[in-house]
Automatic annotation (TrEMBL):
PANTHER family: SULFIDE:QUINONE OXIDOREDUCTASE (PTHR10632), SULFIDE:QUINONE OXIDOREDUCTASE, MITOCHONDRIAL (PTHR10632:SF2). It holds the Pfam family Pyr_redox_2. It comes from the Bacteria. Residues 159-276 form the FAD/NAD(P)-binding domain. Residues 3-110 form the Beta-lactamase hydrolase-like protein phosphatase-like domain. It comes from Alloalcanivorax venustensis ISO4. InterPro entries: BLH_phosphatase-like (IPR005939), FAD/NAD-bd_sf (IPR036188), FAD/NAD-binding_dom (IPR023753), Prot-tyrosine_phosphatase-like (IPR029021), Sulphide_quinone_reductase (IPR015904). This is TIGR01244 family phosphatase.
Length: 555
């Protein structure tokens, strides 16, 4: 038996089947059959009892949900959704032609998948659901809570649930829908605004309008996904569920975990209260990146401190980018000789990829920066304009020291969100425990990780997400289909180091610092063309390509 049409990863529909076909149906991988045809509709129609006996003999679960042609009721839709929720998939549903079964599927999915996607999916399978459009629209507007079933709502179980509406979550959702539009996908994201964070460094350097880094979340959600505007309080992977901040639960078949990371402002004493005044600033927060530029413009003499906390952090080059752009402005304004610039790095090297250290050191010398390695910011007193650091020597001895400042740019310590750290999905360091090559979780095979919360050891950059999204999409679909995974992520990350206004060193690398350049040019040389790429091209690539599933230069 091969005359069936697949509407989703878990469901195919067909016209009337005969008892003798059920063994073949089982051989093709189906586990459940749903009969949507009332007995006695046609002379050549086998009875439901005959089909049930043949299904059981073939090892198939069998359900009879008879629906009168042209009279699909809400109770029928709820019944179908309930069967899909409890049945072991893949499921084959049938009626006389398959049209009733496809209508039941579309109506049961319509509170979480937009009508255009449902109608188009059915049309590709040869079923015309245009007569159901008004009803589909009504259910879509009503949303997931429209018709809950006792005990469990089928509208809260998704083929793919994406946690996080940042770069990773939206790129993965777009890539999945590009490959399989019939998927029911929900994205859980509490924020109203989506930010293009890579440009905040430029905002802090006076080279980018902060308003251009923010867009309404609704405008960047991939078409065809359902946006659940809520916050995830906990992951429960043992039950294929997440817990929301209102206590509700959402179920999934596959999970894409992309919650991002959190800035641990309280990891530095006094930082939270000090930000935004007396020269204390950070490009890592949207509201303070413009203040960085104000501080840079206003400073004519004194001491400017720039800090980098222990790894891992989002975009490890960003602390230096803030320093370079600030120094370049002071140089152009002939102020640099009057400003004592110091860089406090909690690590022992300037940059994690050795190839780029020599050219970056040249810029440090050009800007006469005092380098302090193994020096971690401990506390800030904005009112007194003082900062305290803990320095660690080669023998592990620690010593605290105080420094006064006129400007302090802080890169806050960073960590995975609490919902990750406290879950079974976390590794020993608190990050998502994902395989570095396939991005699938090491213990839960229906969970994939993408973006900053992943513990795969790559650089946490938007460029990494651009390469990760197609790998997640390909491997998730393979897992859903019971096939081997073919996608491999090589740890790619990119750091456009803005060493001066108008020039960038484009550092592209993968696991273990292996260079992965996209262009046949010396990667250690600062170029004006890369500044154009960073300031003009990359925002468009991000919004118009990556978030829409258009995979450019992903390999």
């Amino acid at each position: 038996m091969s005359d069936y049409k697949r509407l989703s990863p878990n469901l195919a529909v067909a016209g009337q089947i005969q008892p003798g076909q059920l063994e073949d149906i089982a051989r093709q991988g189906f586990h459940t059959v749903i009969n949507n045809r009332p007995d006695g509709e046609g002379d050549d129609q086998p009875t439901s009892d005959a089909l049930k006996q043949a299904a059981r003999a073939a090892g198939l679960a069998y359900y009879h949900l008879p629906v009168t042609p042209g009279d699909i009721r809400d109770t029928d839709v709820m019944g179908f959704a309930g069967l899909m929720q409890q049945a072991r998939g893949p499921v084959l549903a049938f009626c006389r032609t398959g049209n009733r079964s496809s209508s039941l599927w579309a109506l049961s999915e319509s509170t979480r998948t937009d009508p255009e996607t449902l109608i188009a999916t059915a049309d590709q399978a040869g079923y015309d659901l245009s007569k159901q459009e008004a009803r589909l629209q009504q259910r879509w507007r009503a949303g997931p809570g429209a018709q809950p079933q006792p005990g469990h709502s089928a509208a809260t179980t998704w083929d793919v649930l994406v946690v996080g509406g940042g770069a990773g979550g939206l790129a993965a959702a777009a890539s999945l829908l590009k490959r399989r539009p019939s998927l029911s996908i929900a994205v859980i994201e509490p924020a109203d605004t989506h930010y293009y964070q890579p440009a905040w460094t430029l905002v802090g350097g006076g080279a980018f309008d902060p308003a251009d880094t923010a867009r309404p979340m609704a405008s960047v959600m991939p078409r065809g996904v359902k946006w659940i505007q809520s916050r995830v309080e906990a992951f429960v992977p043992e039950q294929n569920q997440v817990v929301l901040d209102d206590g509700g639960r959402v179920s999934y078949r596959m999970l894409v975990a992309a919650p991002g990371l959190e800035l641990h402002l309280d990891g530095v004493e006094g930082l939270r209260d000090g930000l935004g005044r007396n020269g204390v600033t950070s490009n890592y927060l949207f509201e303070y990146a413009p203040y960085t530029w104000q501080c840079v413009r206003d400073l004519r003499q004194g001491r400017a401190l720039f800090t980098q906390p222990p790894m891992p952090i989002k975009c490890a080059g960003a602390p230096q980018k803030a320093l370079y752009l600030s120094c370049d402005h002071w140089r152009r304004q002939h102020r640099l000789s009057n400003i004592d610039v110091r860089f406090h790095n909690a690590g022992g090297v300037l940059f994690g990829v050795e190839t780029f250290v020599p050219p970056l050191m040249e810029y440090m010398r050009r800007y006469q920066v005092g380098l302090n390695f193994n020096s971690t910011l401990k506390a800030v007193d904005a009112g007194a304009r003082k900062a305290w650091f803990v320095d660690t020597d080669a023998d592990g001895n620690r010593q605290e020291r105080e420094e006064a400042f006129d400007m302090l740019h802080v890169t806050p310590p960073q960590r995975a969100p609490r919902c990750v750290r406290d879950s079974a999905l976390a590794n020993d360091a608190g990050w998502l425990d994902a395989d570095p090559d396939t991005l699938r979780h090491n213990r839960f095979e229906n969970v994939f990780a993408i973006g900053d919360a992943s513990g795969t050891g790559n650089a946490k950059t938007a460029a990494a997400v651009r390469k990760q999204a197609p790998v997640v999409a390909v491997n998730l679909l393979a897992t859903l289909d019971g096939k081997p995974m073919s996608g491999r992520y090589q740890g790619y990350g990119a750091c456009p180091l803005t060493v001066e206004k108008g020039k960038v060193i484009l550092a592209e690398f993968g696991y273990q610092g292996a260079l992965q350049p996209s262009f046949p040019l010396d990667p250690t040389k600062a170029r004006s063309s890369y500044w154009w790429l960073k300031s003009k091209a990359m925002p468009r690539i991000y919004f118009d390509l990556m978030l829409k599933g258009r995979e450019w230069l992903t390999g």
